[in-house]
Amino acid sequence: MSQYVIETSGLTRYFGGKCAVDQVTLRVPRGAVLALLGRNGSGKSTLIRMILGLLDPTRGSATVLGEDCRRIQPATRGRIAYVAEGHPLIDWMRVSDLESFQKGFYPDWDDRMFRTVVEHFDLASNARASGMSRGQRAGLSLALALATRPELLVMDDPAMGLDPVARRTLLEAMILLTRDAGHTIFFSSHILDDVERVADHVAILDRSILRVSCPVDTFRARVKRLTLVFAAKAPPAPEIPGLLEVRREENELRLTLANYSEQTERIIASLGAVSTSESALTLEDAVIAYLGDRSRQVSLLEKTREAGVI
Amino acid sequence: MGFEFIFSPGSASPIFRQIVDLVRLAVATGKLKAGEQLPSVRALAERLVVNPNTIAKAYGELAREGIIDGQQGRGVFIAPPRQIYTKAERLRRIGPLVDALISEGLSLGFSAEELVDSVQQKLARLDLQPAPARKQS
User: Is the whole-model pTM more than 0.80?
Assistant: First the structure.
């Protein structure tokens, strides 16, 4: 049994002339809860769909549970559950129809799990998917996924549009799945407080390119923010390897850096600041530093101040 | 088990670190006493809706610091008070924090007396129990 449940190598997908996923090499360790982060349009859904064999790559390869993603056998599919973006369900079906439909594909179907989750979301077995709220659709999708006791649960932005209560239940469902040793969750999200609670690994897609893939703690330790104070107006930031984000405000220069090294330290020391201090970053700050536009050295707020917009 | 584990995601301090700090402070202030049982990794993970690895990491650190004893399968308990560090090592660890307090405090314009006062006020608010006899281990 491989240590990795998902392995991709140079996975690439073009839509027409546009590259949606660019040479992604990613490994998801067995038992991990991995959060896939990235801005809208960065390629997260395309990557997920290729991994599940729902979309062929233009180049590169991927395996899931040891099998080529382009030829996943039904028995292997029975060990994977997928919650697609927006919780799509077959609208005319009732809860009980969807249950028996899904059950047919999954040999390890757990009736009690299904009942418990469905009841938790107050869903009657004769309720139709078409009449459900977003939270209820999410609940039913979760019930359908969890009842398969999946070895690998893949969810594409499952928190999208959910209220805080439904979102918390989603997190509880994910923690519930970790009761089964060696079961893996691969999900995309924009809600970093949730990610911080449930994920132990993080991957970041930035404009089609995978820029980070490691344990959450490693990621946080890797990103540093320094505030340099100058006697006069702060100089523009120099070329520094690993520079993620620059903010200049009057006599302050705030640098967010990845992979801080002795070389970085030397460059920073040469700038002649009167003081340099390091501040801790929230997970959200660190992610935004990775995803922001590096050519932009001032925030929107600073820009409006400079332009005299009130 | 009345102890409340309060933490907030989205903080500059990771969740495992917040839990370590919380338990450490509760032990230091006598809110958690030697022999008291903490929830298992799994139970606390489910109660707080946090990845079990995060809790395991926090407990691992607390065990290394000698604050909790965790025997496999028997539960997690607050350890009897003991010093795992020598006096010199403890001074080495607290030194930089005291230095930071002094330099920040003085540069903000506080007097030495005001700094000592503010530390004493904070300590008074913690309602510290008399320190139990500590033995070196």
Answer: yes
